TrEMBL record:
Domain of life: Bacteria
Protein name: DegT/DnrJ/EryC1/StrS family aminotransferase
Signal peptide range: none
Keyword annotations from UniProtKB, A to Z: Aminotransferase, Pyridoxal phosphate, Transferase
GO molecular function, a single term: transaminase activity
UniProt record similarity statement: Belongs to the DegT/DnrJ/EryC1 family. L-glutamine:2-deoxy-scyllo-inosose/scyllo-inosose aminotransferase subfamily.
Cofactor: pyridoxal 5'-phosphate
Tagged with keyword Acetylation: no
Lineage of source species: Bacteria, Bacillati, Actinomycetota, Actinomycetes, Kitasatosporales
Amino acid sequence: MTAFDIALYRPQIGQAEIEAVTDVLRSGWLSAGPVTEEFEGKYAAALGVESAVAVSSGTAALHLAVLALGLGPGDEVVLPSLNFVSAAATVALCGATPVFADVKGPHDLCIDPDDAARRITSRTRAIVAMHYGGYAADLTALSRLARAHGLALIEDCAHAPVTDSVHGVLGTVGDIGCYSFFATKNLAMGEGGMVVARDPAVGERIRRLRSHALTVSAQQRDRGGSSLYDVDTLGLNYRPTEIGCAIGCVQLEALPAAQARRRDAVRMYRERLASLPGLIVPFADRPVEDSAHHLFAVVLPEGTDREALQDRMRAARIQTGVHYPPTHLFTAYRERQEGGPCRLPVTEDVMVRQLSLPLHPGIGAAEVRQVVEAVSAAWQETP
């Protein structure tokens, strides 16, 4: 349900998803079980890895990554402020300190490896690389940096499910890859996520932590295994549901075609917006094939009244968004930083000018044209 004629996101749910959910309901098994195992196997195969662990959300995926690496009080994790707050929150909730790094610039909204390097100290244990909008961060430089300092590299792939890049399949290049299947994501389960790990021992630790660290799972007990189990470490309930994973199986199969439709829309946006003076389309120098295109972000010229422009777009019944308010400026994180919030001049400049335009597999040429026309009209009227 939306008040907009052209929404920022529109999940693609069809008869196949409905039938898959119905099959789960008829099975009588609702929590993580055989459908979850099927989804994990298919997702791992799509990534080209041995195994994957399905979880309840992208936030759960990031939290389990931090827990599996044993991060805690006294440790620091370097990560971009330009991201959803969950990445920093999972670090802070483990007692470690989020250390925010700047992005490269308005043409590349991913973490700047040079700025990340400047923020490494003797307490740094990990770097988080967020693939903004589905575009790969500079994993070559970040991997080199992580190796040089003995750090773990976590890939935040919330925007990039099953996405190839010049560095390899995103999520499989670093030590741990974390995916989100929230309702607005390219692969949408409502809630859900996935974790993959380069080290099988880390992957197994994540799998156990996902379900209270029980030595015998509920599914194993249902199959006739021992009713007794041990708990040898502290765990959580981050299991997904069979309903969500059933949707995930269908969405995964449909993902290549959905990604192709996103690419078509991005091509049209890039071509039609090129005539607006001063407007920057981040990552426009990259081939459209090298991204999941979760977002279509633009950066407005300096001095543009973004709120007024959004009001005019809203009046045209077109939804826009901002991705994201910088995490380091939120109250909870300002209060954690000694001497006040850190300065991230590039992030702070870009994020008063960033705007996200509608992008989803269902958007067609007519809607893209309507969005661009509305942007152009609002452009002329906005100071």
